[in-house]
Amino acid sequence: MARRRRVTFESSGSSESDSDPDFSAASSRKASPIPPVENSSPSIEPLKGTKRKRRLSDHDNDEKTKGLKRLQSQKSDVNEDNEAPSHPEQPRDPGETHITGMQQVIIAAIRATDLTLGLRRIPAGFHVVVEADGAEFQTSNKSAHVDQAVVEWNEPILLPCEPSSIVRVSVYASFELSPMLGHGEVLRTFEFSIQELLGRSEHSIIFQPKHEEVVSPCTSLFMTLEQRLSDENDVAVLCPLTTLVSDHSRALLLRTDAGHGLLARYRRTQNRSDLDQSINEFECALDLCPIDHPYRPAALFNLATAKFLSCQVDGRYLDLDIPISLYQDALDLRPTSNPDRPVTQLYLAISLLSRFAKRGFQTDAEAAEELLSEVLDVYHADSHIHRAALLAIETFTLHLAGSSVGNDLVQEQPTASMLRLSPSQLANLAVWCLRRDDSPALDEVISLHYDALRYYNAMHASRGPLLGNLGAMIYTRFQRRGNEEDLDQAIAIHTEGLTLHPVGHPDRCKSLNSFTALLSTRFDLRGNAEDLDQAIAFGREALALCPVGHTDRSGTLHNLADALSTRFDHRGGAEDLDQAIAFGREALSLRLDGRKDRSVSLNHLAVQLSIRFDRRGNAGDLDETIALHTEALALRPVGHTGRAQSLIKLAIQLTTRFDHRGNVEDLDQAIALHTEGLTLHPVGHRYRYKSLTSLADLLSTLFHHQGNVEDIDQAIAFGREALALCPDGHTDRSETLYILANVFFVQYQGRGDAEDLDQAIALDREALALRPVGHPDRSKLLNNLAVRLSARFDHRGNADDVDETISLHMEALALHPVGHRGRFTSLINLANQLFSRFSLRGNVEDLDQSIVLETETLALRPVGHPDRSMSLNNLANSLSTRRVHRDSAEGLDQVIALHREALALRPVGHPDRPSSLNNLAKELSIRFDYLGNKEDFIESRESLHCALTLLTQHDPRRVIVHDSLATIYLSFHRSGLEGTGPDEDADSLNAAMHHLKTAADTVSGGLLNRLQSGLRWVRHAAEYRHGTELDAYATSMQLMDAYMSTTASVSSRHSAMKNFPGTLAVDAASCALRSGDVRRAVELLEQGRTLIWTQMARLRTPLDSLQTHGDHAVALLQRFRDLSSLLDKPPVSHADDTQSVDAEAAATQYRRLVGDWNGVVEEIRRVEGFSRFLLPPLFADLQEAAHDGPIIVLVASRSSCNAIIIPYRQPPTSIQLPTDLEKLASLMLAFHDANGKDASPKGNQIALIKALRKLWDDVVCPVVKNLGGFAPRGSRIWWCPTLLFNFLPLHAAGEYRTNGESLSQQYISSYTPSLTALIRARKSHDMCPSVSFAAIGQNCPAGHSSTLDGVEPELEAVRRLLPPPPTVSFTKITSVDATKSRALSALRDNTWLHFSCHGTQKFTDPFNSAFLMRDQPLTLFDITQMDISRHQFAFLSACETAVGDPTTPDEVIHLAAGLQFAGVKSVIGTLWKVNDWTVQRLVEAFYKKLCGDGKMNSKRAARALHQAVHSLARDKDMPLDQRIVFMHVGV
């Protein structure tokens, strides 16, 4: 007997269950007002119909998985369709698979299932090809009906007997029945050995769908095998071997099969080249078929099909004549008896209808109708061809009726199948698609649903469920991509679905619920109030259809509650929110303990309570929200699929409570929850990036509040990892960029490094680019980028940033039309930025527009709205500013009325009541100034005192209130009413000074606010010559020093300096001089000048010396800077019910920060060498600068100009100079105009000489007359100029007449930016026996067309005049070698330097002043970053190397000073431009004097320069301005 064995191969798409939650709410730290609500989206409805189910045991599932893994590990060949053949593999049973004697192996029967699943073309039939040992066997070609799941071939096929022989089984769809040209389109290929085949048991193997397909045909293949003895006389039943064909025929078959393969691949991948190649292959095949060839009809048909598709893809409907002609030719060759005639008629009819739709030829319609009628007469109603003909007729009828469908009449969609799936199959695919984030799959399943809807008309029972599923998938696509057209389409589809479920229909409730969710979403997007009202109406109707006891009542309650809470958020109607919460509580009560969906109700109610807390600030609501989320988390233990979502929601609410109460335990717990969430998403998990972004956000918050650098570093690391997991094209890359930008922005706020701000802006720009116009998140990203640009404007003052900020806010406002719930926020943001630009440029149009916007915001906050007081306050402030700008009392009463209304809305206990009291008091004070009404003064004063009583001792706003009290007392003092009443304070001026001093001393107020109060104290104390004036100066300069020390970058410090008075230090010194305290004047000058250099040196020197004191000392300095930044943050606002608890918590936190800050400073001062850390230098220390000669400090202030002579170990002397600021400004201008004028060899430069004489008479001569007792003639003196004195050539002053006096005849002049700088330069270092000298010259730098011809001769002269080795080790770098990097290397490796090149001074950004090299400038900032503390000397033979910024002259920021501050002991620089043809002579004279005796000593540089200039005095070819251009700085 023959042994039979059935072998099964099953191919299907794997079913995945995705249990991970939607983490969209976790992408930001705070919960949105309307977070995503579970089960509120349109749902997938199960379709009615029969489903084929196959029961699998656990063992079956395991085997399926194992089989899949084995298949994936096999190596395989690739067929002509680029598909890997399947390799079933099972454990072998040697006893069963051994073939003995003359046994034969026969395939007795083959059965295939689901052959039409996912096909894009209508097949004529199906067949199987078996290949083995070079032979090929082919079954007959069988057709299949629509409902026919299985096609069976009972045709025995003889296989080889050798166990190792390889057998390939391929299933094909053919497109003709007879004669059949080629194989057609391959559906599935399996490959195995005879031994594997016989050893196989009935175990299923899972195969994935084909590349980029959702479904694939031929899900299962069953083969029945027999083993027979060869002597059994039944060989005749075997199929004969395929007849060998000629080379010509083989070429025809290969071309045709290649065309089918390419066409099939195009339909899957949409690669246009595949379609073009397919057409080419079919054209070649047709060329091989002459007129009478039997395969010509098939070749014509194949080419026509490919051409027709090409016309549709390209929209070339004029070319439809070509495929129509080809179809007609094929039809003419297929007579009535030909089995392939109907399918040819069908395709010809479809192409004719397509041409009719585009051109309107009636003859096409008539011909198509006739052809389709014939097809319907011939084919059975269950055939695919019959169904396709019906679909074509139905579509044609819709077109004639004017339906929009006719515009794309029977056009074949690239992703659509002409072979419809069953309703149950479509439902399964819809569920499968919604569980995956697979965009192509979603598009394909949507297309399949559209195809099915064309078939199932309005009367069909399956149409309603299909519409529901289609609407849900389109809505999902909208959620993933943000295309508003998808949302509109989903609503339109659900509208039709609702009409199919009229009143009384059992599914009407479901349709209403879907509508509620969709309309609510569209309202969120566009703000159309009609959508929201209609959503609520539908929700109420749905609830009415779900009475108590109805299974859907709880879900309906959830949806209605969400819509009501949204309307509350939009309109502020408290009844909506309260009703939403009531519905949420009822829904929760319907889901008792033990129900699986109780956690869902807990989450829904928690969301509503969270919204109410956000609006009303009731602490009980927030606590209940957290309790509900905690219970929900307990219902989802470790291992529960929803635990990650519950962890996130609870973490968000804990973060919110931290924001309101400041309890760090809440923040720590939130971080712990997110950390657990991260463990649930290990490396490789698709949602890991969301946990990483949540942690990054929270850790940055923790850094913001505690200043722990490790937290922000970890936050950035998490953010970067998350971004790496969201590459270009990822749906959440924009959100991840947004979070990382926030982290960098927080780091910028904490550390002040502008690079962090730039990085945040770059990330924001990329995030915005990924949210194009129309995306629902675009407005949020527009706002974020605008906030960062506004911060950068505040930091750098670049007007372009504020302009772009306004443009961004304008675009965001345009996305929030009237009625949109986001409009209020956009109005506020735009109004604030317009106000800022007005403050910058004074354009009153900006201020007027700001007021218009704020007026609209007030209208959006009617009486009773919780935010109305804020809008009143903003509008009042803007109106007040406009009144001040116009210098008019007009509108003052309106401003006061607005502030009174705002105050009434902020009763005792409201956190903003002190602010409202202060605002009202300020306006009353202004009205008092205008009208002199004493009642306004009294009310203003009492309001401010009341505000003080409401503020805790550590509230930062106390500074503002004290400042306002000072203002009202000053107004009263100026009014002349002082002392007119028995209850009045007779000394209002003293009271004003007291409040200004208190404001400046309030540590909790923040350094900037305190500094501004201190400067007001200075201004008014100086105005009235009050006794506290000197204290005011000392306090303000100390605050200035502390404030500047918290700014990280030198460029930002320089920008910040421009915001404060540039004369503060000199005015303070003048005040001290007026009181006769010269020593104090010197201390104040040193304290208030060269802050940037001093702080750089202060931080650099400790960092060097702290290395010897251990890591603890280094950590102390970093901790100090972090805490200083934290103390400068604004206070957190608290709602009514949380005032007592939250304010105390905030005060406790702030006290701790202040205590920590003071503690760190005290600890640093206990470190050896740091006892004076952050304390001003004392005169006794500063006097050390005069060790080698007296220092002359020139003080230029508004009140007087003085010279202070500081000798060594003798009392200082002050001399009042016969000049003032106005004269000095004129003199500075005179030097500027005289420079270079009449500078030819024969020119006498009269203007320059007149200016030098004026300088001698007004400044230098009075000093020289008083130097006799401190410095002998011919000795050295040092000038330390301030303010305008910095720009005068003091060393060259003289009478410049016969026998006239001059400074250079009596003393050798040097300069120093500050006394501290000179002291630091005098610190001795071990001298190297050999001097390393680098001469750096660049005659043609980048960007300069002119060449400095004297550079090479100058450097050669330097080399020639220096002592030879080993005294000097000389290096010369010039021309192409003189690049920035080479210059930096030379600067680092050599202690003596000579620069000969172009120099440039950048007044707007002096740290970018530079020596110009071949490729890039060598900037002052580059130099400051180097350690050149052991360098001895630098000669700067370049233009303007000792000229500072006129806007901040006392910062002395130029190349010469920078080199000295960086560590070079002795520097020679230039005051203005130098001439290439004269400088070489001075350089030669200088080096002869410096090292003519063969010795190198940097202390001789000043004397050498002095002697060199004198030696050239009689040189008629040397203009005076070039002879005096060089100056010496340092020791």
TrEMBL record:
Transmembrane segments: none annotated. It holds the Pfam family CHAT. Residues 1-97 are annotated as: Disordered. Residues 1251-1517 form the CHAT domain. InterPro entries: CHAT_dom, TPR-like_helical_dom_sf. Residues 57-66, 84-96 have a biased composition (Basic and acidic residues). Residues 9-28 have a biased composition (Low complexity). This is Unplaced genomic scaffold CY34scaffold_767, whole genome shotgun sequence. It comes from Suillus luteus UH-Slu-Lm8-n1.
